[in-house]
Amino acid sequence: MGSKVAAPSTASILLLLMVAVFATLSTTHAQLSTSFYKSSCPNAVNVITSAVNTAFNKRAASAAGVLRIHFHDCFVRGCDASVLIDSPSEKDARPNLSLQGFEVIDAAKTAIEKQCPGIVSCADITAMAAQLSVKKLSGGKFTWAVPLGRRDGLTSSAADTTGKLPPPTANVATLKSIFAAVGLTTEEMVTLSGAHSVGVASCGAIQNRLTTPPDATLDPTYAAALKQQCPAGSTNKVNLDLTTPTRLDEVYYKNLQARKGLMTSDQVLQEDPETQPMVAQHTNLAVFNSKFVAAMIKMGNIGVLTGTQGQIRLNCRKFNP
Ligand code: HEM
């Protein structure tokens, strides 16, 4: 019997086309790689790790600072180090005025430029500093290998931040929509809010809650203590997590359940019917850990520049001449 080659069916042609499209899409999307500097600067990860940890040891508060810098970088024009450019720039926008920890990134950049000039981007250094911050603040429990290969953006303007960075007074609908706008889910918003398990906020960020009578969703004893720390017009700072302020852990979520979230944007996660069960899930440290690591990697992928886009800045505070 002679063999007969069947003509490809429409279905199989379609399938092949879909495979080809998917292959193209996945190569263009899988742009970052944990081994990106393997041949161009083999020591990059070690040099940056050592410089960042030295800077954290000089000033412990800078660890929470760089975690927030990475968030503010990624939500405005993607993770392209646009937030690092000195004024006039994104730094002039109100939510960025309280950013701190830039010296950590400068120290790492200076160290890496000595070894591998013009190779490692400020956006990658920022992502690595955020991972090292999380590792340190969680006592080594939360960690991951950072996908690398981001390039630095060519613009930075305060106007670009409008509507991109959530205010401390945000309601849950605003939080959901700001995160959705950068491709993050409501659950990822709840997970990433767990970063408020460390660091501080200015009294100004909670004035809206310290009214008479105080915000009904705020525990009265906690409200009284906050009023003492934040008299009217005060520029003091208060811990975001009243129980374990220097430890990245699940206690942030337990505080929310006890009406002891610091800012409106924290406490609303417990008040909303969609996010309340998510808060409950995150009170388990192992759940918070795995979800936080996954969400940080996803946040670090937002709008990245790769290939020949942008530039590799020589000084993270200035565009190259
Ligand atoms: C969900 C919406 C969010 C809002 C409304 C918000 C708002 C704020 C505000 C107002 C402060 C205090 C700034 C000050 O007055 O000094 C703060 C601090 C902080 N935020 Fe957020 N944030 C949000 C999400 C995030 C995310 C996603 C991260 C990181 C993954 C993050 C990390 C931090 C850290 C670490 C601090 C403490 C910074 C320090 O001690 O210097 N925040 N946030």
TrEMBL record:
Please share the entry's free-text remark on the cofactor: Binds 2 calcium ions per subunit.
Q: Which cofactor does it need?
A: Ca(2+); heme b
Q: Which GO terms describe its molecular function?
A: heme binding; lactoperoxidase activity; metal ion binding
Enzyme Commission number(s) of this protein? 1.11.1.7
Which Pfam families has this protein been placed in? Answer: peroxidase
- Give GO BP annotations, semicolon-separated: hydrogen peroxide catabolic process; response to oxidative stress
Q: Which residues are involved in binding Ca(2+) 2? A: D241, T244, D249
- Keyword Lyase assigned: no
**What are the residue positions of the site described as Transition state stabilizer?**
R68
Task: State the UniProt keywords alphabetically.
Answer: Calcium, Disulfide bond, Glycoprotein, Heme, Hydrogen peroxide, Iron, Metal-binding, Oxidoreductase, Peroxidase, Secreted, Signal
Q: List the disulfide bonds.
A: C41-C116, C74-C79, C122-C316, C203-C230
- Residues annotated as binding substrate: P166
Q: What class of enzyme is it?
A: oxidoreductase
PANTHER family the UniProt entry points to: PEROXIDASE (PTHR31517:SF84), PTHR31517
**Task of the protein:** Removal of H(2)O(2), oxidation of toxic reductants, biosynthesis and degradation of lignin, suberization, auxin catabolism, response to environmental stresses such as wounding, pathogen attack and oxidative stress.
Give the protein's recorded name.
Answer: Peroxidase
Question: Which lineage?
Answer: Eukaryota, Viridiplantae, Streptophyta, Embryophyta, Bryophyta
